[in-house]
Amino acid sequence: MLAASISFAVMNLSGKIVGETSSGMTALLIRSAATFLFVLPVTVLSGSSILHPRPGLLLLRSLLGTTALACLFISLTKLSTADATILRETAPLFVLLLAPLWLGERVSRPMVAAAVVGFTGVILVLKPWSGLLQLHALIGLLGGFFASLVMMVLRLMRGTYPAHVIVLTFGLGGILVGIAGGGHHGLGLLPPSLYSWVVTLGVAGTFGQLFLTHAYRYAPASSISPLSLTTVIWAALGEWIISGLIPDILSMIGFILVTAGVVSVPLLAPSTKTPP
Fold first, then answer.
1. Alpha-carbon gap, residue 130 to 109, rounded angstroms
2. How many helices (H) and strands (E) does the chain have?
3. Whole-model pTM?
4. Are the beta carbons of 246 and 240 closer than 8 angstroms?
5. d(CA 262, CA 264)
6. Cα–Cα distance for residue pair 135/15, rounded to 1 Å
7. How far is Cα 251 from Cα 69, in angstroms, rounded to an integer?
8. Is 161 helix (H, G, I), strand (E, B) or coil?
9. pLDDT tens for residues 143-187?
């Protein structure tokens, strides 16, 4: 999971550099195309089908995941990498709010308190009182919301498709949305000096997805999910090294509160064990 977090931090930094020169949709297209081309041979050789058993859920997961990723890359064009990343990592907080309605799961009062702490951190990152609340910040938060929907759809899909089929359709969805959003036009705006960042974006995003898939396959989600929040640390560190930008004090406090809220949620979940 740590490898996945570092990979996604590198992806976010690369996506910001590429997106600022072209567009967020161009970054989405590059990342999605790399993932699709990498996973396609595996899917073909395995003989897996996307038509069975639940193609509707597979399509929904692809659309929601692509929307979440598009929101991330669009927000990165205007926000700091650390701010955009922490807004994306609010997904577990949205799951807490939506799971009782969608999945019928129980939510305890301590879990609600953890969510309040987390969303207080979000407010500190957004700083709505400053009069500088950006549309791109709200888009970044919307990315966290769509990512939470992906998590819930994946729960419904448990055991239906192998991971490479899910990742393949996710990549295909990103290619289609990226082209529909004009991302292919931005490819011509990229100077040769950024080609290394283009490659890094595609490679880091693809390997991050693969590392993430294997992490959730071999370890309990409750033990590795908190490690995903280290993506914010790696992203902030990389941004400081590249551009010298350091998050302001309110954003840092916000990061801490969001992290506390997200990490606390699984620890406070009601026990599902039956009494002896």
1. 32
2. 13, 0
3. 0.86
4. yes
5. 6
6. 18
7. 22
8. coil
9. 999 988 988 887 777 778 888 888 899 999 999 999 999 999 999
